[in-house]
Structures are given as C-alpha cells and as structure tokens.
Amino acid sequence: MCGIVGIVNLNQQQPADLETAKEMLAAIRHRGPDSAGIYRDSHVMLGNVRLNIIDLSGGDQPIGNESGTLWIVYNGEVFNYVELRPELERRGHRFSTQTDTEVILHLYEEEGPACLNRLNGQFAFAIWDTIRQQLFLARDRVGIRPLFYSHQGHRFIFGSEIKGILASGEVPAAINPSAMVEVFTYWSAQSPHTFFKNIVELPPGHYLLLERGKINIQSYWDVNLMPEDETRSPDSYCEELEALLIDAARLRLRADVPVGAYLSGGLDSSLTTALIRDHTQNQLNTFSIAFSDPEFDESSYQAQMADYLGTDHHFLRCDYPDIAGAFPEVVWHAETPILRTAPVPMFLLSQFVREHGFKVVVTGEGADEFLAGYDIFKEMKIRRFWAEEPESVLRPKLLARLYPDIRRISANAAFMTGFFRKGLEQIQSPYYSHLLRWQNTSRTQKFLNDDIKSVLPPTGYEPSFRIPTDFSKWPSLSQAQYWEITTFLSPYLLSSQGDRMAMAHSVEGRYPFLDYRVIEFCNRLPPALKLPVLMEKWLLKQLGRKYLPEQIWRRNKRPYRAPISRSFFQPAPPDYVRETLSPPAIRDAGLFQPAAVQMLYDKAVSASNGQFGLSEVEDMALVGILSTQLVYQQFIRGEGMRKRCASMSAIKIIDCVLHE
Q1: Is residue 229 in some structural domain?
Q2: Model confidence at 660, in pLDDT bands (50, 70, 90)?
C-alpha cells in the first residue's frame, strides 16, 4: 500500500522541481512511511511514498520496465500477481523485483488498458509512456483505493489524496457548493465530484488516458445486478460461494508482513476471520472496538468469536471523549465533511493495530451491499408490499422488523408508519428504495446559508444519476442494491470510513467480499437467495452454519454505529467544538446560518443535561456542520496544510531518476 502523486506539463516544459514533488509527497507521507521516490523527465513527475508489504527490500517505486520507456507509481495490491508473473516471463518479460507493481507494469506493456480485466485487487496507479508521452491512470472496480486529479491550464496534477494535489501550490483550495449539497443529501460527494472545486476523482472501474493534452476517460467495469436465468439448488450456490470466498481470503493473505483481522462480532467479519484463520500458520491476531456506551457495544460477541476461533484478540475501548478528541484528525484525513462519527473509532482502531505491529488487516466490508444485509433493503420490500394496499392497517406493522437495535425508532409504531408512508406509492421511480433516505438527510440543508442553497434543485426534483440501460428489467432488490453500492459504498464506506481511516496510520485493509469474482457471483444470485421475505443475507448465513457458532450466524444485522452528539457534549464540549461552532466562526466560513447553528448548539447542550435528545437529522446536521467548519479551517484557510507541511525535509528521496 502506498500513496502516489504526479504532474504532467502539457506544454512540454519541466513539470515540477524536486521541492514541489517533495511537498506533495510530504502531504501524504502517512500512506507510505517506509520509503519515497520520484521519477522526472521533461514532461512528467511521478512520486510515490511506500508502505512495504511485498518484497520489503526490493520494491521501491517508481519502477520502470527493462528499456526505461514505461514508469509506474502504484497504490494498492493485486493479489493474483503470483499467477500472472510466469505468463509474462514466458512472453519474454524480465523482472528486477518480486513485487505486484512490476507485474502490472509488464502486463500493461503487453495488453494496454485491457490488462485491467486481468487484475484481481484493490488499486490506483499511474503509468507514464515516455515514447508516446502518454499518461495512463486506473482505479479498481469498486473504488477501494482513491485517485484524484485536477486539470489546470497546461498542468495535469493527480494524487492519492486531495491534500497531495493542494500541496503542489497550483490548485487553490475552494469549496464546491454543489458537492456540499450532495454531502448533505447522500452523505458524500458523488463521483466524479469532490468537496473541492476543480478537483475530481477518477470513478471506480474507470481508467484515464492523457495524451497531447486530451483526456479520455473510459469505464472498464460496472455493476450488473441482473440475476442469471439458470435454475440451481441453494446448496449449489452455497458451495460456489464458499469456494470463491475461501480463495478470495487465501489470496488476501499474500504479504511479507504479518496479517491480522478486524472482528466485529457480526456475521461478515466473523466468517472472513474464520476463513483466513484456516490458512494462517501462526496464531491469528484479531482487533475490535468496544464501546463504553452499551447501545453501541458488541464486545460480548467479539469475545465469543475470538474464543471460538482461538485468536489472540485485542480490544480497543472507545468512550465519548475519545471520539471528540480524534474528530479533527479524522476530518483532516477524510478531506470531506462527514455526517456520522462512525469513522472515528475506525481511525482509532487502525492506530491501535499499528501500535501492535501490524500493517495489514482483513475485514468484512461488502457483504451487506452485495448479499443484501442492510435494513434499507427490507424497507423497500415492506413499502412495496404496503403500496399494493396503501390503506392496510396490518401491512405497515411489518415495519417493527426494522432497526431493532435503535430503540427510539423501532419502539414508536406511529412514527414508523408516518415516516415510511412518505412517497409510498411512487414505486415507478427508479430511486424508490432510497428516495426516502435521501429526502430525510436533505433536511439538514436547512442550516446552509443562502448562497449554498441557491444551487439546490427545485422542489420535487429527483436525482439525475446515470441509470443502467437494462435497469428497469432488474428485480427491485437489485435496483436498491445498485444505489447502495454506487452512492454509498465507495463514496463513503470505503473512503471516509475505510481507506482514509486505515491509511491515516499506514494500515492496509483487505476485503474478501470485494473480490470481483465474489461480487459478480453475488450479482447473479436470485433475490430469494439474498433476502427471502425479510431474512437478510440468507445464503451467507447458510454458509455461516459451517464455520460459526449458531448465536453468531443467526444474529440479525446490527449496523455499525458510534455515539454522535453525546461524544461532543458529555460531559462538556471541548474548546475546539465551542470555537468552531461559535457565531464568529460560522460567519467567517460563510457556509451556514449562524442563528440556526446556535439554536442547534444550545439544544445539544440541553440534551447533554438530560432534558431531551437530538433527533437523527439534528445529530447528522451537528456532525456535518462541525466537520464542514473543520474542512474550511484546515484546507480553505490553510491552517492544517501549513501546520502539517511545514517540514518538507522529512521526506527522504530514496530513488530520484532524472531524464531532462
């Protein structure tokens, strides 16, 4: 795992001096603290900071081919490099390292962009062709690893993180109002948008070719959730899923450093941990978060699983002050506002993992999206059933099956009925499954100032996301899964809660459920094997019978959450919260209405004294406003950039190849 940066000068002058390159690398040094390197010629600069995981002594980047005509910088892992290398050697390619990086380079030399279809992994990389003067950027299928770029005049600048681009000094930091509205609707800016003007991301499953000043972006993979026509027995599907997951887990143990595992106590991480334990020679180390607040704590299930699997388990205890204390650092690494505190314990957990000497952990993300584990899929089924008889008294009673662990919601039948009745009969909308959630989150927009609100769509507007050509033929469950995968998985879960929180402490997460073979298998499944009636992840639970205790595989899905307003106001708000949400600070940023924010702040103080609690929307608004203000302070006013990039001499250039 690494971080990459680069500059291409489109008017063929020297692209960047070494000091600029070093500043860009310094801004993302946390992604690769073990070594750093730069390639330069008269057109391009490529930079890399490396986290040594494979070929610890011989894999420093950038890496060139035998003739020096192709150069690569790379962030990620391609797990099937072991199988690809002999094929390339038979074709005459010669290797100087044992890395997967070099395998990608030679495979691209052999097959061009088509090489992406051969790669099984999580990656973002750049290859410079010195003969064609062509830059090739690529990102993995579901967007596990980030990649951003900015095209400014005669300069094309890219990096693993936005702060690397900003550190070049060539792209001013400014907030994108449209993306801000997206954050306060979908929880994150939607690809290719980012929270910053003139900086975009390369979407998941896409590659970019830059040649002679022209940018060509192509999709090489997309989510297709049309079930197969073939009729098979459930046992047959279960056996195939087991074989795929075993191989996906086995491949994700490939490393020259120890590999640990996250163990939440739920079905997904328990199963991936069980699978990798069977392929680990030494005792497996597992890690989990234990909350002091019992509403969020799952440590009893974690302890049960650790004991059952015989792992060396490590608990990180997380309390309210821990979340409040780490929040500014989390926002710095996320590079975007967040509407939940859930990323904070993940940030603390990766620090905990690193302190125990681990760089790599296997984790269970992806199963809920591709095997239908979330309550939002049950919502959709209940509401469609209810919509057939809108006046039914009995059908909405099924809503009691939703969110059993969030008592203030599930216990209020009148609230549940009233809330989920909204838009009940709009079943022809392609966004039916998610409109209610998006509309609910968008209520946080009432705190935005008038300038930001001016970019809001008109009343009654539906989103304008790209819809697959055969979308209307998909089952309703597949349609719901598509929106969860494309608007939430990569933009939020794998980013703000995944890559950014792990790599903040130089820890690489690996995801067996996001092996593209597992994904494509799950996408072909009949809906009845994912969510029969209201039984989530049915097929995975059948597999769980073989590997897990009954108490674990039978558990209903419990969403991972963390305390929100309580974290910042019990027992009292930290100084930075008071200052960041104060009327002068709100007016200085000019993004929110000071009076409305003050009323919310006062209500949060009262709630901390036990008078009443904040609603879900108010909780989201509070965290969203606080994190947006921090983004403004850290990036727009530049306080964070100046503080963190003050000492560029800390970057040690291991390999600087100059071609003038």
Answers
A1: no
A2: very low
